[in-house]
Amino acid sequence: MKKTVFVLGGFLALAGLCWAGRLWADPQAAQPTQAAQATPRTRIALINLTYVIKNYQKYKNFQEEIKSVFAPFEGTQQQLRKEAEELQKQVTPTTSSEKKAEVEHKLKDLQRKAEDSQAEAKLVLGKKSDDQMRIIYQDVTDAAARYATAHEFDLVLHYNDATTREDYNSAMNIARKIQTGALMPVYAAPGMDISEEVVKMLNYNIVPAATQGAAPGTPPAGGN
To answer: What is the pTM of this model?
Structure first.
């Protein structure tokens, strides 16, 4: 069975906690006779974790891998359903009670096989999805740390939000924000959200140079 990260229920269950702030100098510290001093501050950046993961090529590759692993289980389920349908066609108003009992017994056997196949798929796909999610998250945090170090950010906070303008302004997305009570950014100054830059870093050695164009823009916090 698929685990939607990603979303895929698992991937895809990470709560976003983010805020942006600045620490300003004590106004009493600067006297008229003193030379102007640099204003101390903490540089903070934001990452839309949903956007970063969905645009990370390794995540897309993992999704395709999951599909290939799931295919045999899906084929088994389809075959069992087909056999069950053929058995059910054998039962008519004139079918003897003995024949009905035989068909019922076979249908129960097919049902058990289907349940066993589902349980095996859940076990196999669940472990693979968990392993892949750990890899993806570690890659993202490593890339964020490299970007923050290179651009002198002191703190990087992540949040989870829609990745298209339509979804961003949807009633469902707005209700999710209100109900979760998380600290979601309603406004962020240009340059605060580094999601797109982190995606570019993650994909640099994965996406061929010819297809490395800019990733689709993430909606600005607050829909501005």
So the answer is: 0.63
Minimal CA–CA distance to 63: which of 27, 12, 117, 21? 12
DSSP helix/strand/coil, 193: strand
Contact at 8 Å (CB) between 157 and 182? Answer: no
Tokens of 50: 């949903």
| Angle (deg, nearest 10), helices 57-89 and 97-150 | 170
Rounded Cα gap, residues 24 and 172, in angstroms: 38
Q: What is the pLDDT of residues 53-75, one digit of tens each?
A: 999 999 999 999 999 988 998 99
Q: CATH code for 39-223? A: 3.30.910.20
Number of H helices, E strands in the chain: 6, 2
Whose tokens are 């097919």? That residue is: 110
